[in-house]
Design goal:
14 strands, 37% helix, 19% strand, 13 helices
Length: 382
C-alpha cells in the first residue's frame, strides 16, 4: 500500500472468505470496502471460520497479503495467535487507529488492548462492542464476561478507548457498563449493496415459504419461532440457515420440530457463503428472525435489500416497519401475535405479497440513499 494515507489496523475474529459468523463478518467487510479509499486498511484476523478446526483453503497465513487497493489482510494461524506475534504486528505497523470488533475476544480484543496498555504505541483505539453489551448478550457465559469487564475497570483501560456504538441503544449500554464518562460515538454499520428487485416466483393463499438466517444459539431465538408455528394452520415451509453453535440448544430445537403438525415443514441448512445468500432469500416469501438482540442485523438488511418483508423482534435497530409495508417488528412477549402475523402473510395473495416485496426493497433503497454513514466514520476515525 505504502501511501501517505492514515492507517487503520482492524482486528476481527473472522473475515472473508469466512462466512459462518454472519453479521460480525459483514460489519468488518463492509467497513473495509467502503473506507479503503480514504485510509489504508490492514485487517488482522484468524485463518479459519467459526467452529472450524482447519484453516480455510484459499488463504495464505502469517503474512500481510495485498487484497485490493487500500486493503491488506493478515490471516493468523493458531500458532501466531499469541502475545508476541500480535504485539510485533501492532508495533511494526504503527497504525494511526486500532479498530477492535469484539468485546470479549481473547486474541482480537484483550491482547491488542494489553499491548496498547503496556507498550508505546500511539494509535487511537476504537472498540465496537457489536451488541455484546446488551443485557440479553451479557446473560450468556456471564462469569467470563464479568471477569473481563472487571479487568477493564481495574486497569482503567477505557481511558484510551473510543467506543463505537452502532445506535443510541448501544450507546446507552456502553454508558451503563462503563460509566457516563466513557467516550462513545454513534454511527450505524455500513450497509451492503442492493441489486434490482426480484419478485417471488409464485405464491398461493394458504401457503408460505419462510427463511430464518442466524446462528443456532439462544440469542437468535429459533426456539420462539418453532413454538409459535405450533398454532399455524396454513402450509408453511421454513428454511433455517445457520451454524449449530450451541449443541444443547440445537437438540431442543430438533425436538420442537418433531412436535410440529404435518402442515409445517422445517429444513436445516448449514451457513452458506455470503454471495449465495441473496439467491436463497429471493426463493422465499418472508424473512423471520425473533432475535433477542441485534446491534444492526445484517441478515435483516440483506432480506430487505432482496425485497422480502421481514418479521422480526423489536430488539433491533429496524423499527416501525409496518407503516412502510416493509415488515413487522414485534414484542417477544406476545407469541400469539407473532404466529398470527405468519398466518396473515400465508393467506395473502401473490399480488398482496408482491406489494410488500416492492415496499421492502424501496424501504432499503431509501435507507441507503438517506444515510450519510461514510462522513460519520470519517469523523470517528479523526
Amino acid at each position: 500500500m505504502g501511501s501517505n494515507r492514515k492507517k487503520v489496523m482492524l482486528f476481527t475474529d473472522w473475515f472473508e472468505p469466512a462466512y459462518k459468523a454472519g453479521g460480525p463478518i459483514r460489519s468488518c467487510v463492509n467497513f473495509a470496502y467502503h473506507m479503503r479509499g480514504d485510509y489504508d486498511i490492514y485487517v488482522f484476523t484468524g485463518d479459519r471460520d467459526l467452529g472450524d478446526e482447519e484453516a480455510m483453503d484459499e488463504i495464505i497465513t502469517d503474512q500481510w497479503i495485498p487484497h485490493s487497493e487500500g486493503l491488506a489482510i493478515y490471516y493468523a494461524s493458531r500458532d501466531s495467535l499469541n502475545w508476541r506475534v500480535i504485539g510485533k504486528q501492532i508495533r511494526g505497523l504503527n497504525a494511526d487507529y486500532i479498530y477492535l470488533n469484539s468485546m470479549f475476544s481473547r486474541y482480537f480484543t484483550v491482547y491488542p488492548l494489553l499491548v496498547k496498555l503496556y507498550s508505546r504505541t500511539a494509535g487511537k483505539v476504537v472498540l465496537a462492542p457489536r451488541g455484546m453489551l446488551r443485557r440479553s448478550a451479557l446473560s450468556f457465559k456471564p462469569f467470563k464476561k464479568k471477569l473481563f469487564l472487571n479487568l477493564f475497570s481495574v486497569l482503567k483501560i477505557t481511558r484510551f478507548i473510543t467506543f463505537h456504538a452502532t445506535d443510541e441503544e448501544e450507546k446507552k449500554d456502553i454508558l451503563q457498563v462503563f460509566g457516563k464518562d466513557a467516550s462513545s460515538f454513534s454511527v450505524p454499520n455500513f450497509p451492503g449493496f442492493q441489486k434490482p428487485l426480484t419478485l417471488p416466483l409464485q405464491k398461493r393463499a394458504g401457503e408460505l415459504k419462510m427463511v430464518f438466517v442466524g446462528r443456532i444459539h439462544p440469542i437468535k431465538n429459533l426456539h420462539f419461532l418453532l413454538e409459535g408455528l405450533r398454532a399455524c394452520q396454513s402450509h408453511i415451509y421454513l428454511t433455517v440457515i445457520g451454524v449449530k453453535e450451541d449443541p444443547d440448544y440445537w437438540d431442543s430445537c430438533k425436538e420442537l420440530v418433531k412436535q410440529l403438525p404435518l402442515n409445517i415443514i422445517v429444513v436445516f441448512i448449514d451457513a452458506v457463503p455470503h454471495h449465495q445468500l441473496e439467491n436463497i432469500l429471493v426463493e422465499h416469501h418472508l424473512f423471520v428472525l425473533p432475535t433477542q438482540g441485534e446491534n444492526f442485523g445484517h441478515a435483516i438488511f440483506e432480506a430487505l435489500a432482496a425485497g422480502r418483508p421481514v418479521l422480526i423482534s423489536d430488539q433491533t435497530p429496524w423499527k416501525n416497519l409496518e407503516p412502510f409495508k416493509a415488515g413487522w417488528d414485534l414484542s417477544l412477549n406476545d407469541i400469539t401475535r407473532f404466529a398470527g402475523t405468519i398466518e396473515r402473510v400465508a393467506y395473502m395473495s401473490a399480488e398482496e405479497l408482491n406489494d410488500l416485496c416492492q415496499c421492502a426493497w424501496q424501504y432499503c433503497s431509501n435507507y441507503i440513499q438517506q444515510s450519510n454513514i461514510k462522513q460519520q466514520y470519517l469523523k470517528l476515525f479523526n
